[in-house]
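A student in our group prepared the protein record below, which I am reviewing. What it holds is a sequence and that sequence's fold in token form. My question to you is simply how this chain folds and whether the tokens agree. Do not assume that whoever made the record got everything right. I have pasted the whole thing underneath without changing anything:
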Amino acid sequence: SNHYKVCHLPTMSAPVIPKVTYINDALPEDLYGDLERIQSAGHTKRTFTSVADINATMVGQTVWIRARLQNARGKGNSCFMVLRQDLATIQVAMFKSDENPKPMIKFCSGIARESVVDVLATVREANVKSCTQSDCELGALRVFVSSRASEVPPFTVEDAARSEADIVAAEAEGKVDYKRIGQDTRLNNRVIDLRAPAQNAIIRLVGAICNLYREACVDNGFVEIHTPKLIGGASEGGSSVFTLDYFGRPACLAQSPQLYKQMAVCSDLERVFEIGPVFRAEKSHTHRHLCEFTGMDMEMTIVDHYSEAMDMLEKILVHIFNGLQTRYAKLLEVASQQYDITTFQFKKDEQNLRLTYPEAISLLRNAGESIGDLDDISTAQERKLGEIVKEKYETDFFMVHRFPDEARPFYTMPCPDDANYTNSYDIYMRGEEICSGAQRIHEPELLKQNAIRKGIEPETIEDYINAFKYGACPHGGGGIGMERVAMLFLGIGNVRKVSMYPRDPERLRP
């Protein structure tokens, strides 16, 4: 069911399609046809109404809309079209009359799905349960095709929009019409897939997450910065870097803006944030890993304690969660039409759960997990911890801090009472990590020693180390994976569903 062929629409013995010229404010006498190419030849001075704004209070009004033809059903002397714009759909009903002569009905019945049409119509009262605009319909006065689909899509938007529950129910009833579209087929034809309302809403929610993050940062005195993605040394250390030739010199794509946001703090930009691409050359074929993702990073000076940075990150994330559930509730509702989206649980008006690393280890051991005091928590153990926390504390959102030194990068400040642990933290949603952060080392000599101890040559990060030689305020921060936040807030099981054009070890197109 995942193999679809792109079929060219038949052209043999096709009827002659009227061409309509519409380049000024004089309404064409033609009732229907294909508009001449819109090429900025003039101004028609039309005012278009958004489909989402049309309702029964507008009965009798005449409106222009530009929308996609989702489907058309012609039978005898009538034609019903469903038009879709953004997340809204509306029915156009036509019956043979002077306003809708038979050739016009025949023309509209034959317009290819997904074509873009301009429709001048009168709003009429109706009960149309299959459309989002359910209390009205349109009576067409003019139907002009402004962009005709020249190929049959590899799958229909209706198939792309259908929930798994609906498909399973149809299979149980013995229906064979419903197609299950595989993920690769969707991603290979993303331009069609994203037209399905739930997919479209998810991309809008992803944008909302970035908007809410930026809003929270700016409201708390952060300055937005833009750091280079072409760098001369690995920003995180290790082998998971994309290397490239930079005019004869070795270079790589940044694994994070870590070093540069710290240097920004050293430049007396006391609070900084960035939303930008992050590159990881990890051959991870999992539901949560991408080779390119969007990082939401922040860094800030602290007065005494790394908990100040934890407080700020919690404040920012709670703003995002609350904003999604209130200001973007409509988008969540649309996404839930296709996906089983469960409400994300967190505390809005009090501090959310924080566990020290030893406390997290203790919870896991009590649940039967075998893990050493200084062992890193595995992915499976993270999920288990999430289940334990959900059952015991009734929350999907929590932090773990004081991670072992072995599990953290070279620039992490060690704990003052035990060098085996660090002033670091991870933030979890539904038992999966979405943010890693810490107090950073702000003394150049300690930073250099730690780099050597972790197998990094100081020469490769010389500019970074030098930034701390002229006095540096104590500081900390974190990096949040935007796609993971979207995936886990929605409870959708794969990060590729929330990435517009995901990049993983197997995918470099489209």
The longest strand covers residues 62-75. The first helix runs from residue 102 to 109. The two ends are 21 Å apart (CA to CA).
